[in-house]
Design brief:
The protein is an all-alpha fold and about 300 residues long. Helix content is about 75%, strand content about 0%. It has 14 helices and no strands.
């Protein structure tokens, strides 16, 4: 018995690494995520801090609140208001349309290939923005666009004579909806998948109708995910500039275009006022992301 104890003790002593070796072990498990942190620090955190610092400085580098006070100018307030309305309208339209599509492909009894094809397209379309998207809508719904011409020739409907303009508020909102709907489908689908079949069976056993099941069970479960995704879509549209600038130029005074004019423009050049405008955008999108994280945390309780 004693020999066996000594033998096992000797074996453990031979195989266990020395304390010095354990202390000198490099944290190799962090090497995989190091590029992410480096990228985030260089292209997200540091530029954000630079903008926030510049918003409270003048050309001489002195502390001032003039740039923040200047945000109360009517033109800047109007730009924020238009951006908020475009972002909110596109987020709500995209959210409800995307929710309907997600419910159809998850619980609508459709073939599996439709779900895979829809999710694949949504993943691609949610990232399709900028100049290509603006050109696509101009070529489709511009004054001489394909859909505009077909509606006029075949159905005798001139949408521009009835007040539609691709370079207007609703034209930009419709363009944003193109990538808002697929993004909603991609994000809300896991929440729809989280609805357990047992809940429906239990509701049916207790005598609940389909409407009661959706009103009492389904809607309360997916409501936090839905609200969180709406907020995320709002933030996604609020910071978009390439699509809006390529589509409308300076004809629609939204915040990203005004910011571009203040930092890069020849006439309105005021870099520190541009930093203040960017700071206001950071505050709005930051609050939106805080609410999104909060709603997402609440919804994850039902997805586990």
């Amino acid at each position: 018995m004693t020999d066996l104890s000594l033998s096992s003790h000797d074996t453990a002593g031979k195989t266990a690494p020395p304390a010095e070796a354990r202390a000198l072990r490099l944290p190799t498990q962090w090497l995989g995520v190091a590029p992410f942190f480096i990228f985030a620090i260089m292209f997200l955190i540091l530029p954000t801090l630079y903008l926030m610092l510049g918003a409270f400085q003048n050309d001489a580098g002195e502390f001032t609140l003039e740039n923040i006070v200047a945000l109360a100018q009517p033109s800047i307030v109007a730009a924020y208001w238009i951006s908020i309305k475009v972002s909110l309208a596109s987020a709500l339209i995209g959210a409800f349309a995307g929710l309907a599509i997600a419910i159809a492909i998850v619980r609508g009894g459709l073939p599996d290939w439709i779900r895979s094809a829809t999710l694949t397209f949504s993943g691609v379309a949610s990232n399709f923005a900028g100049v290509p998207l603006a050109f696509a809508f101009l070529a489709t719904l511009g004054r001489l666009g394909l859909a505009t011409v077909i509606l006029n020739i075949v159905f005798g409907l001139n949408i521009y004579a009835h007040g539609f303009n691709i370079l207007s508020f609703w034209g930009l909102t419709l363009t944003y909806v193109y990538f808002q709907i697929p993004l909603m489908v991609v994000i809300i689908t896991p929440a729809i998948d989280g609805l357990k079949k047992e809940w429906g069976e239990a509701a049916a056993t207790l005598g609940a109708t389909t409407a009661q099941y959706w009103r009492i069970v389904v809607i309360p479960v997916i409501w936090p995910s839905f609200l969180g995704t709406v907020i995320l879509l709002f933030a996604n549209a609020f910071g978009a500039i390439a699509t809006a600038y390529a589509l409308t130029g300076s004809s629609l005074n939204i915040v990203p275009i005004l910011l571009y004019a203040q930092i890069r423009g020849d006439v309105l050049h005021n870099a520190h006022l541009g930093y203040a405008i960017a700071f206001g955008m950071i505050v709005i999108t930051g609050l939106a992301n805080v609410f999104y994280i909060w709603f997402r945390t609440r919804s994850e309780r039902w997805l586990k």
